[in-house]
Amino acid sequence: MNNTLRIKIAPSILAADFSRLLDDIKRVEKEADLLHIDIMDGHFVPNITFGPGLLRSLKGEVNLPFDVHLMVDYPERWIEPFAEVGCEFITVHVEAASHLDRLVNFIKKRGRKAGVALNPTTPESAVEYIIPKVDLVLAMTVNPGFGAQKFIPEVLPKISAIRKIAERKNPDLEIAVDGGINEVTSRQVVEKGANILVMGSFIFNSSNPEDLIINLKRKLNSKSERSYERRSK
Ligand code: DX5
Ligand code: ZN
To answer: What is the pTM of this model?
Structure first.
């Protein structure tokens, strides 16, 4: 089989209206693939967001896998609380990890999918030796901390480089991108080999997020838009 890796959309609730968070999630639940949840500690990044308590309340109400993006120092302190809540994907930043292999082992041992995230200027070599063990690499396409920032195009070659390493070491690796992803940039990153598109403001600012996701997936999955072909997961 020589199918393409399926494109998945992960709406980021950072861009939702927090006064009606569950309503906003319901607007994307049917068509999205994952729910992206940014955990910020005010230290690793200059912003503060949610803790495990909020996710525990949402978990029973939302029919989507939780994709937790830990933008925190001391990530080892936070894996167990988010694993316990039932978050399906747990992603840690390589810049915050003193013992990345140990963290990844711990996430996997807890039965969760393990992801590693790279800030825009962190090279692909920082994850080369962990790629065989992880389910996902997340390439930040903005400086983490805030939504609605401008996409950093210098990250594009890094996405290709990660995909090349994955071809050799872990063909089923999912590559996520996060920050400034919209109709134009989604095409650029998919061409380089990304398949999970985290999208905050582009989705939640739309008057019809459901249609937007349907159309985007249709376009990006169509053969003409995909120059990057590989095995299906
Ligand atoms: C930024 C967060 C992103 C953010 C993306 O630090 O990790 O998930 O919500 O927002 P947009 O899509 O608006 O750039
Ligand atoms: Zn994120």
So the answer is: 0.95
